[in-house]
Amino acid sequence: MNMRFVPFERLDSSPNIIVDGSAGIGTILTLSHWPKSGTPAYLKRDTSAEIVFAYLDSPTSHVRADIVSNNHFDEDGLIGVFALIDPSKAEQYRHLLVDAARAGDFGVFKQRDAARIAFTISAYADPETSPLPAELFAMPYPQLASQLYIQLLQILPGFLTNLSAYKQLWEAEDAKLTASEELIEQGRITIEERPAVDLAVINIPENLPAQPVHRFTQIRLATCHPFALHNRTVRSRLLIVQGQHVEFHYRYESWVQLASRRPPSRVDLSALARELNREEASGGRWVFDGVERITPRLHLEGSSATSLPPVTIQERLEQQLSTGPPAWNPYD
Questions:
Q1: Whole-structure pTM over 0.90, yes or no?
Q2: Residue 114 belongs to what domain range?
Q3: How many domains would you assign to the chain?
Q4: Which of 59, 105, 251, 318 gives a 20 to 30 Å CA spacing to 241?
């Protein structure tokens, strides 16, 4: 059955498949690594794109629906939807597409072109760099996400067959990734792992400025490109130290349902934030975003530098991670 994309906000009772999201009106099958997605166990894979390919590999499991949709736009969602709509082309470039989906969601890749495809998709979704009409970005997000699907589903095959034609969209971020990789190779950025608590401690030179980069097609500021870090460590918890600037991140891998491994459950760090605030003298305030956020941080607001010794923060963090109760379970 030939599949077609329908915007999420236009779904009715017609049978549909949702890729990389949660069920909507008329949904009879969800192909998603999202928390509690209800995706059949035998189809589960690390990314939603891989789940779609597993579904395509299992004809006896196919459902009677010709509509596919999603409520948000990102690389993994786009690639999964594309694979359902054009399975023959997707199969031809399966390994590259899966690699690009992993780059977009997890910041890891095997082929450099996979990272570049993720950068190109992000550039199209960024109003500052997108070749798409500017009026699209004035739309409310649900309509914008749908328009990005409609436009990018047509353009994505070109990324697979002639990526160099889109170089102006990926080369700047590709250069940032190269620069970060070189700093790691030179030992100027160091990664020290604490396997007992699944933590990587990243030390970054103080004079390294933050730059805009893309994660999940959104702009973030980072002193080291996340793809460079994530491709060097499998640890799902990152403590980034740059002089007296200290912040902690849970990676996306611990928010979704991974099939290849299970990272340690997230621990609520709100109590640690309160403890640090009792001693913080910089004028800033420690905040934990919450375990339910896709990539939550423990970070200092209102000051760029903590008054506390970074080693003290690290010791208390490791203690909390090793003893705190699980506070997030994405699995069905």
A1: yes
A2: 4-170
A3: 2
A4: 105
